[in-house]
Amino acid sequence: MVCGTTSNAGKSTVTAGLCRHYARRGARVAPFKAQNMSNNSAVTRSGHEIARAQAWQATAAGAEPEVAMNPVLVKPMGDRRCQVVVMGRPLGTMTAADYHRMKPELLDVVLAALADLRRRYDVVILEGAGSPAEINLLDADIVNLRLAHDAALPAIIVGDIDLGGVFASLFGTVALLPDAYRRLVKGFVVNKFRGDPALLLDGTARLQERCGIPTLGVLPFLDGPEIDSEDSLALDRPLTAAAAGTDEGADPTRIHDVLDVAVVRLPRIANFTDIDPLRMEPGVRLRWVDDARSVGQPDLLVIPGSKATVADLAWLRSRGLHRAVDAVRGVVLGICAGYQMLGRSITDPGGVESSDPGADGLGLLDAVTTFGPDKVTRWRHGRLFGRHASGYQIHHGVVQASGPPLVELDDGTGDGAIGTTTGGGTVWGTTLHGLLESDGARKALLGQVAGKARKRIGHGGSFEAARQRRIDRLADTIGEHLDMEAVDRILAEGSLG
Q1: Which of 17, 179, 307, 423 suits a disulfide with 474, CB 3.0-4.6 Å?
Q2: Which residue segment(s) compose the domain that 76 sits in?
Q3: 70-88: pLDDT as tens digits
Q4: 204 in the same domain as 288
Q5: Structure pTM?
Q6: What does the H/E/C string look like for the chain?
Q7: 301, 443: one domain
């Protein structure tokens, strides 16, 4: 099990790097996170919803993402409510307190999913959540060291040195653990170190003297755009992390212009990984916007998904963003909830997502949305501007639209809608998450945006290739900077449990 001293310490990336490391060595590897709290989710080929991070880790492991890799997914909705997804299907909406009380009932589900993976794979790398030393939550723990204890698994703990105080964080974590859990911790990993490791001096040795736990290695801070992040803390990082042309897979054609792409930072944003492919494009400059003044006149304005569509629509209006959207002269793209907001109306008679039975949309697309109890989770394939496109749907809101669709689906139907703003801009809507990961479709879409803006841009290479290079870099870094013989011994100890 890979635990962390805090959220965003690097558990997900270390887990992914270990998955790739052992897959390279010929093992059948699977990731596992018993409970993930995130609004970034993916759909398996069987139509089950799991956290995006576990789908990414499965890619790192060379395995097909499956529901057993993330049996419990908690999707925050604001106002202390969340949707709980168990084995890929929504169990219901409840308060945080209600979910905390029911967690012990889910322990058997979690242990069964883990046992199933251990029967079918050679190596299973578990990821914890937050910190394993949240003493107020230990009694109902189903994702951290309680799970490792019940499954007889050893653990390592990752600490983020970039935040400062890493030695105190690592020592304090194990000091707060009950004896039975403390004995499971076999090593520390110091993550995100900038500079010369010699500057740590004898810090790791003195830490081991105090708590008896060795440091397995110090991982350097990896520059470059981080993709497939699940943690909302990732929203605080710059959207554009690489200069134009730095991606080795980029089109060598000289870049004449750069597209200005603004993304609305909704309070309850979901699936913000939808914009990751744009971060890899050398012809795109991305930026967050959260009020009318910051919008300006972008070439492309993206309204992403949300887990509380009506509430975020009200927030959008309160910030004057509805007027800014209407005044855009370029292109507006709404994805899932963003698409629903651009329509004429949203109704939720059963209170599936909102206590408000309905709201007027922005009226820029001839589309109406009705929320129902059934949740759609499926993959779709089609063509966008004549190029192959694919993506997955995760929604309770069923959209009925008239007029030309944005995506022509292979089954002869359409997805999304096309309209205009009063500012003379073009409005597009789609229900498909992951649509921009299709390289041809993304290039065609950006080509349309560039044409309207009268700009010439270069294009990046394959997004999937960039993702694989990022994972390979993680695995290379782990192999170089961790004591992998010690990690092997810890892994072998788990196989004896």
Answers
A1: 17
A2: 2-224+467-489
A3: 999 999 987 788 999 999 9
A4: no
A5: 0.91
A6: CEEECCCCCCHHHHHHHHHHHHHHCCCCEEEECCEEECCCEEECCCCCEEEHHHHHHHHHHCCCCCHHHCCEEEEEEECCEEEEEECCEEEEEEEHHHHHHHHHHHHHHHHHHHHHHHHHCCEEEEECCCCCCCCCCHHHCCCCHHHHHHCCCCEEEEEEHHHCCHHHHHHHHHHHCCHHHHCCEEEEEEEEECCCHHHHCCHHHHHHHHHCCCEEEEEECCCCCCCCCCCHHHHHCCCCCCCCCCCCCCCCCCCCCCEEEEEECCCCEECHHHHHHHHCCCCEEEEEECCHHHHCCCCEEEECEECCHHHHHHHHHHCCHHHHHHCCCCEEEEECHHHHHHCCEEECCCCCCCCCCEEECCCCCCEEEEEEEEEEEEEEEEEECCEEEEEEEEEEEEEEECCCCCEEECCCCEECEEEECCCCCEEEEECCECHHHCHHHHHHHHHHHHHHHCCCCCCCCCHHHHHHHHHHHHHHHHHHHECHHHHHHHHHHHHCC
A7: yes
